[in-house]
Amino acid sequence: MKVYHRKNFLYGLILAVLGMGLLLVDSLNGFEKLNAMLAVMCSVFGAGLIVRSMSSNAATADREEENDPHTQMVLLKNRAHAFIIHRYVCLGITIILLIGGKVLMSDMLIFMGIGVAIVYAISILLDMVTFVFFNQKK
Question: How many whole angstroms separate alpha carbon 10 and alpha carbon 50?
Fold first, then answer.
């Protein structure tokens, strides 16, 4: 069969493999109902994506939805807000870890706070670099 939408096929394959892997690990370590339900859901969603990627009509509809300007605008806003929330969460975790490390006299908490602060600094740096890059393209 021919694959018409490679991205959906790859996502479906990954989901199906994760589902089957989780089911295998769950059966080896004692069967838990929640893990089994998650494995079945991953496998079913993965199989659904694989089937949709092999249908030319469904692949065309998926591509049209991906290229829709409204969908792209919503995706862009979503990523921007997620990035902003990520920065605030990193800043909050950094402050909590540094204060907690100082109060509890724990070097490990201070080092963890420094690590999260580095992630926060990288996110600010990336924000500035992308701002400059996209403003130069005009």
Answer: 8
Q: What is the mean pLDDT of the chain?
A: 92
pLDDT single digits (tens) 109-119: 999 999 999 99
Dihedral angle over CA of 11, 14, 15, 20, nearest 10: 160
In 3-state terms the chain splits into helix, strand, coil percentages (rounded to 5) of 90, 0, 10
CA–CA distance, 123 with 104 (Å, rounded to integer): 28
Mention every residue, 6+ apart, whose C-beta is less than 8 A from residue 4: 53, 54, 55, 56, 58, 59, 60
Q: Burial code of 1-25, b = ≥16 C-beta within 10 A, e = fewer? A: eeebbeebbebbeebbeebeebbee
Supply the angle between the helices 33-53 and 56-66 in degrees, to the nearest 10. 100
> Are the C-beta atoms of 18 and 47 separated by less than 8 Å?
no
Give the integer Cα–Cα distance in Å for 23 and 3: 26
- Tens digit of each residue's pLDDT (9 = 90 or more) over 1-36: 799 999 999 999 999 999 999 999 988 888 888 988
CA dist 133 and 63 (Å) reads 28
